[in-house]
């Protein structure tokens, strides 16, 4: 939904992939029977209520042609809860042209709702001083059962699951869950 990110994606490709197109859109309102494939990376965790989650999968079901493929990734609840219990703090520091950039993230678990409450701070230290920006947001993790239920409800066959975009990484090895499913019939 970000025009700025669409422009960045176009710049990053340059003239290398003229057959790729980008557009600002809303995954809850995709055009019907329009796509042969949908790749949805890192977005579904931001849908925290049940209605939005159901609407996203209904939209995918309507938007894909019969035989089309949906590829998505989400944070898997069990592995994420284990990791964030063990390692709630993440910090990375890098040198940039403008100075030293420090990224700090602290994640708290809201176990009953499978939500992550994330507090981030970005600090840039330059010769003229330091500037910080703070962000707080909520994400909701997924379970394979929840994904499979929404896929079936919206006309998809059984999904194949991976722990990363490398098929050699099995589910549970990471806190990610990658699902690949094929559209079998028109969704209601």
Structure description:
Helices cover 24% and strands 39% of the residues. It has 188 residues and is α+β, with helices and mostly antiparallel strands. The radius of gyration is 19 Å and the shape is globular.
List keywords for this structure.
single chain, 188 residues, alpha+beta, four-stranded mixed beta sheet, four-stranded antiparallel beta sheet
Largest sheet: 4 strands, mixed
Counting DSSP H or I runs of 4 or more residues, the number of helices is 4
* Percent in helix: 10-25%
The ordered string of helix (H) and strand (E) elements is HEHEHEEEEHEE
Report low-confidence residues grouped into runs of 5 or more. Answer: none
User: What is the radius of gyration?
Assistant: 19 Å
β-strand number: 8
Query: How far from one another are the termini?
Result: 25 Å
Global geometry: globular
**Which structural category fits the helices and strands?**
alpha+beta
Strand content: 35-45%
Average the pLDDT over all residues and give the rounded result: 92
| Strand arrangement, major sheet | 1-2-8-7
């Amino acid at each position: 939904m970000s025009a700025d990110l669409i422009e960045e994606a176009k710049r990053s490709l340059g003239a290398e992939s003229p057959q790729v197109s980008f557009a600002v859109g809303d995954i809850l309102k995709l055009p019907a029977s329009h796509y042969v494939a949908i790749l949805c990376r890192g977005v579904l965790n931001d849908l925290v209520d049940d209605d939005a989650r159901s609407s996203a999968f209904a939209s995918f079901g309507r938007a894909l042609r019969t035989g089309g493929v949906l590829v998505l990734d989400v944070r898997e609840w069990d592995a994420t809860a284990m990791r964030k219990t063990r390692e709630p703090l993440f910090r990375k520091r890098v040198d940039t042209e403008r100075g030293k950039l420090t990224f700090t993230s602290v994640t708290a678990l809201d176990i009953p709702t499978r939500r992550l409450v994330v507090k981030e701070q970005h600090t840039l230290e330059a010769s003229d001083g330091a500037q910080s920006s703070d962000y707080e947001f909520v994400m909701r993790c997924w379970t394979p059962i929840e994904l499979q239920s929404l896929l079936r409800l919206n006309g998809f066959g059984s999904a194949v699951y991976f722990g990363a975009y490398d098929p050699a990484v099995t589910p549970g090895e990471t806190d990610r869950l990658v699902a690949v499913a094929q559209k079998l019939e028109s969704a209601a």
